[in-house]
Amino acid sequence: MFNEDDLLPISALQHLAFCQRQWALIHLEGQWAENRLTAEGAALHERVHEGQTEARGDVFIVRGLRLRSLRLGLVGMADVVEFHRLPDDAGAGCGLPSAAGRWQPFPVEHKRGRPKADRCDEVQLCAQALCLEEMLGAPVPAGDLFYGTRRRRHHVSFDPDLRSETEALAARLHTLAAEAVTPPPELRPGCGKCSLRDLCMPDRLAHRSVRKYIAHALRSDRTDDGGGNEEAP
Predict the structure, then answer these.
(1) CA distance 13 to 233
(2) For residues 78 and 108, what is the distance between their CA atoms, to the nearest angstrom?
(3) How far is the first Cα of the chain from the last one, in angstroms, to the nearest whole number?
(4) Mean pLDDT within 37-56
C-alpha cells in the first residue's frame, strides 16, 4: 500500500506505455511542448469535465470523477463514469448516495484521435477501473474508449491479461520514478506525431552512446577551430 504522497498520475501510465523517454521528459524533467494534437486533446477533456452530472433513464453519468488506488499508487480523474442500474435482485455493483438500488460502474475515456495499434489507451482505462474497484468495492469488468475522430466508442474488456499488464506497468512506473533516470532516445514509428520530438531528438541521438556523442562533439570542435589539422601534409 502506498501513502498519499507517493501517488503518481494515472495519465503517466499512458505516457509510459507509449514511450519511456516521453514519460521521463514529461514527468521527471517537466518538459512539455504543445502541438495541434495535444491542444485538441486538452480542449476535448476540458469540455468533458465541464459537463454536469446527469441521469438518463437507468444510467447515472458522473463527469470528472476523482480516482485513486493506494494499492497501485495511482491518482487521477476519469472523464466519465457511467453507473448502469442493475436488477433489484443483483448482488453485484455498488450503491449510490443519490439513488436507490445497485449500479454497475462503467468508465468512459475520451480521446481525440482514433484507436491505436498499441494498448496504451486501454492500459489507462484499465487503471481507472482498478481504482474504481478499490474505491467502490465493486467489480468493473469493462469500459469504453470514445474516439473523437470516428465519433464512436471502442469497447474494452478488462481481462486478466490487460489487468496484469496494467498492474505491472504501475509497478514499473514507481520503480522508474524512484530511479529518476531519463532513458536514451529510440527512433520509433510513433515519433513523428509526438509533440516532444524536437526536445527528444530521436533521429539525432538514437543509437548513439553518450561517450560516442561527446567524442563526436569534441572532434567537431577541433575541426571548426583548425585544431588537430595543423601538421597534416
Answers:
(1) 58
(2) 8
(3) 70
(4) 61
